[in-house]
Inverse folding.
């Protein structure tokens, strides 16, 4: 299933942007791009993504960017400690208290700009928060798409049921049509001689039995009911694939039993709808 999720979180002077894209694919393929320092977390992040995605090609991009301005300022602990020791020593020798203001701290380079581009380990938490929010956005989009796909499948299955009703109605005329064709053919072969009515009825009964599609119609309707039950479950998978095979088997049998042009055309329409349903099922998670 297709989907997209994005999130951005801040921590200190760092910002984390996460984007996750999902496209249809039969198997699950997850690719993550992480900052160099956090690549050891890739396996953990893939497990988290698998809680949302069970199939498809997933691209996850995680970026860390450092802000500018005052947030980049930091205290130099070594220099600060050394100046504090010197001030304490001076106060002990002079016997008076020394006051220090911000201008003094700047002049002695205790506060300096952090020019390091390497993110600290504490950024791991903001990455996890961003990933969780992006995955939630992806999940919501996949749920909306899944609902739309479910509605489309149910409409197509309903269409199949309506077409099947037409086939069933047309099949009721099959015995009568066969009787007429058989009588005409026998009359031509016997050149007007008298036919044995009992023998004729036996042949018509056998032919009608071979043309009877009532069992296939009942099984087709039963499979449709099972399909509707499966579609509301959390997992569709192999059950739906099996039922699709059975639905195609039944409609193929119906088409092969009848020589009625209307039934043949209706059978083609059902198979067309079933093929579209099959394509949709391949994308559902």
């Amino acid at each position: 299933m297709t989907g997209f999720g994005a999130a951005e979180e801040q921590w200190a002077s760092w910002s984390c942007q996460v984007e996750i894209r999902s496209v249809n694919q039969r198997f699950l393929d997850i690719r993550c791009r992480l900052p160099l320092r956090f690549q050891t977390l890739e396996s953990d992040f893939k497990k988290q993504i698998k809680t949302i995605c069970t199939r498809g090609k997933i691209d996850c991009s995680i970026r860390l960017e450092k802000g500018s301005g005052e947030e980049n300022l930091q205290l130099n602990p070594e220099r600060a400690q050394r100046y504090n020791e010197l001030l304490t020593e001076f106060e002990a020798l002079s016997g008076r208290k020394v006051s220090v203001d911000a201008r003094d701290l700047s002049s002695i380079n205790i506060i300096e700009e952090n020019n390091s581009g390497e993110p600290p380990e504490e950024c791991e938490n903001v990455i996890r928060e961003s990933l969780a929010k992006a995955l939630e956005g992806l999940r919501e989009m996949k749920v909306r798409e899944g609902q739309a796909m479910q509605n489309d499948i149910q409409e197509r299955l309903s269409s199949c049921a309506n077409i099947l009703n037409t086939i069933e109605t047309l099949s009721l005329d099959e015995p009568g049509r066969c009787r007429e064709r058989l009588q005409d053919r026998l009359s031509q072969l016997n050149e007007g001689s008298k036919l044995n009515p009992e023998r004729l009825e036996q042949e018509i009964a056998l032919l009608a039995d071979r043309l009877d599609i009532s069992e296939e119609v009942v099984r087709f309707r039963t499979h449709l009911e099972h399909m509707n039950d499966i579609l509301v479950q959390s997992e569709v998978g192999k059950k739906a694939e099996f039922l699709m095979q059975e639905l195609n088997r039944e409609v193929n049998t119906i088409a092969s039993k009848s020589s009625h042009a209307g039934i043949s055309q209706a059978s083609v329409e059902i198979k067309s709808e079933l093929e579209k349903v099959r394509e949709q099922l391949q994308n559902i998670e």
In short: Residues 72-113 form one domain. The chain is about 60% helix and 15% strand. The longest strand covers residues 56-66. The first helix runs from residue 42 to 50.
